[in-house]
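@channel sequence for tomorrow's demo:
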Amino acid sequence: MKITRRIFGFSLLFAPLFFPISGGSANEPAAHRKYLVFVGTYTAKTSSKGIYSFHFDAATGQLSAIGVAAETPDPSWVVVHPNGKYAYAANEAGKASTVSAFAVDAKNGKLTMLNQLPSLGEDPCYLSFDKTGKYVFVANYTSGNVVVFPIGADGKLGTATANVHDEGKLGPNKERQDGPHAHWISPSGYVADLGLDRVMTYRFDSVKGSLGAMPTPGPQQPFVQNALELSPGTGPRHTAISKVRNSRQFLYVLGELDSTITVFGTTKEGIFDGAIQRVPMLPEGFSGRNDAAEIALHPNGRFLYASNRGHDSIAIFAVDPGKGTLTLVAHVPTGGKEPRHFAIDPSGKYLLAENQFSNNIVVFRIDAATGGLTPTGQVVEVPSPVDIAFLPED
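structure tokens (generated this afternoon):
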């Protein structure tokens, strides 16, 4: 495994990564029992009309359809603001891509358009908020740039305050790594770029709303854009990060192209200085097509989940609490085709798998002791589901 060991000192900045944008915390189970659920979809060449809303009861695991929350084209990523009043969607439409702001009506599950702006790139695929909740970060996949939009007091998006293009050596996959492809951005401004085999790090100024190079010590290079560099052909898509335990923290990077998870850990000084493990997401002997998709830690930090598109499964790993390393527990079929996304509900009791090509969401019960997944029997129909966001109702 060839992974460059460049010092990556952002663990303290990364600590707030799980900003509670969906009504729960990744560190502690949520106290709420009932939630609104907003589901993003693809509308092109499907029967979908846009964003759909549901009720979810965390006490029973029941997911009940409400209807269309908002008609909007290809809302492939939807997030709910921490204040619960607003929601934002990435409208993935090539050069015509936009980002939309909505007001949330929690009583009827409807979303009302506030405004819509060009994404200033092609095919936005991920949104997040900065730690203050005053800005929306946008990762534009095809154009490989990340954009920052301020959020007004009325929830509307303002004129972009930053637009940064990822730079670096391209990966070896000529078809998928033909240029930078930003696929994920954290609340602190860290970017997983599938095309560059890198997790980039930018410095975010919450006063100016700007993204810039990270400062590093030394008179020769006072400012350098640092990065974690992964094995060639990994294709980093999304990441998950643990909470701090015994002064250590662990970063888990999902490789879409080679179906792996790479684990990075911090030193006692609090910096990520190299990979400590790289594990396959597929069972031994599987030779079919596969694109890894989503990754998430359970709120208790003991288990990690990742989805396979092609093998159509959720890979479950046990997490060593001291070392941060992963041990495979099982592969569980998602009950459909192409699980582009899944979400663990804020209570940590259920996992909702979105099967894009079979047009359904399958609900699984999570075994708190083993991390295992058991289908509850609920299979909820929704056209081309690709993202889920939670909002507390009670």
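heads up for whoever presents: The CA atoms of residues 179 and 195 lie 6 Å apart.
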